[in-house]
Write a structure and sequence with these properties.
This protein is α+β, with helices and mostly antiparallel strands and 139 residues long. The chain is 22% helix and 45% strand. The chain has one domain (2-21, 31-136): Transcriptional Co-activator pc4, Chain A (Roll). It has two helices and nine strands; from the N terminus they run βββββαββββα. A hairpin with a 2-residue loop joins strand 3 and strand 4 (45-49). Helix 1 packs antiparallel against helix 2. It is globular. The model has no long low-confidence stretch (mean pLDDT 90).
Length: 139
């Protein structure tokens, strides 16, 4: 299990990658998935959801995040096929990272939009966790 927490105790997005799923009769066209727990905490709201994240999207997000972490330029986006969660981390001036996103309930009837800033130092620990995940599922 790998846990990436972007933020602090007052406002954060926490992504816990839990269980890897392989389709029972896998073909080369099948997408691989990982079950996740996502927690979003912003002033006034605390939400949790259990999206299925596709491995290709996770790999792309980790590559973008690596670039963002190393250069503090650009952005990293997590936009899985099953759009229950969307997350963007964008570099701003002065080492600030602007975090925006949305979360949908499993029945798609409720939506949480969130927006906060973190310092660049909050990228190091989650990046290490996601890099460890990527070593398990290399590109």
């Amino acid at each position: 299990m790998y846990t990436a927490k972007f933020g602090n105790e007052f406002h954060h997005v926490l992504i816990e990658l839990q269980e890897y799923e392989t389709p029972p009769f896998k073909t080369s066209d099948d997408i691989e998935w990982i079950n996740a727990l996502v927690e979003i905490r912003v002033p006034g709201f605390l939400g949790q959801l259990n999206p299925n994240l596709d491995i290709p999207t996770m790999k792309s997000f980790i590559q973008e995040l690596r670039h963002l972490n190393n250069t503090l330029v650009g952005q990293a986006q997590l936009n899985p096929i099953e759009d229950q969660i969307a997350l963007t981390l964008k570099a701003e001036t002065g080492g600030h990272i602007h975090v925006t996103g949305k979360a949908l309930s499993s029945d798609r009837n409720n939506k949480l939009l969130f927006d906060f800033e973190i310092d660049q130092t909050f990228l190091t620990a989650p990046m290490a966790e996601l890099e460890a995940f990527l070593r398990e599922f290399p590109i």
